[in-house]
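Hey team,

Sharing the Sperm-egg fusion 1 run so nobody has to redo it. Sequence (314 residues) first:
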Amino acid sequence: MAVVKEFKDIYLDKHLFWNPQLKAKLKADLDNFLEELPHQEIDQKKYMAVIDDFSLADLGAHFKRCLKHIMENEVKEAQLHKEMDSCFQKLLTVFHELLPRVATHHCSNECGVMSYVLTHCFTCLVRTYTCNKKYRCGERRIQVEMDEDLVLDCALQWHKFSQSVKKYIFYRVVKGKLQPMSSSMDSFLVKKEVNVNDSGRYRCDMADLKGTVSSYLDFLVQVVPAVGKTTWFPRPSHTTMTVPLALGISSRAPPPQADFSVWIVIGGTGGLFVFIVLAFLFAYFRRKKGKEDEEDDDDDESESESGSSELVAM
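Structure output:
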């Protein structure tokens, strides 16, 4: 592992160059821990002295994070030995937790051919194993409404633990013959907006890149009329009725109600406008009449003054 080499040859050499004895001891402790790790006393039913790639990757990731933590925090001499011991204990705990998973997943397939790669903990030899069972993995019955999407999911629980490169091939079964539909790494197929003609049998094969089938699954699909949607009734081909035949639609929804809100708004706006115009005209004519009354009063006063002047003159 690159991080182990970096920790031993770079980090320890840099921080303990002036203390060669402690540096040599910590390097030896690290090597001894890695050599003794596979020789743990674990229940034989849980520990098979082998480890799969998934568990090995998890174990390596934990160990890498632990050493990176020491290097990134620049742990000095006083705490370095203590931090390494803590790192070893954490890795042992993870090791004890991961190994039972290997035994649990061993030949966990209920059908098909399961492939897995195991690494021997003592010799580090890597070998590929298979667990062979019946190829057919049953039948799934699917009911889908008309105009909806049909989803065929071919994934089984043990597929993710099978370490061979997988591809999924979907077929339509017509009169006992397989008609290819798609082939990809995706374990599901989506068929858009199905109709009654899409009812029938389908099949999905899980195979390797060479096309060797590891398992297959059958699907029985039934397309049914949509519930709660409008249904248009077809016009009959012939009829003996003498009156016109009126065909409508079947729907649970009530007929739409008339919406008078727009007319109410228009009427209210128009009424307000008329009221404003009338108020303006009323104010205008009232003001005009007031001016005329004032002019008449002025004329009367002028005539009165003229009459008085004539009387004084006489």
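The CA atoms of residues 11 and 72 lie 10 Å apart.

Ping me if you want the raw files.
A.
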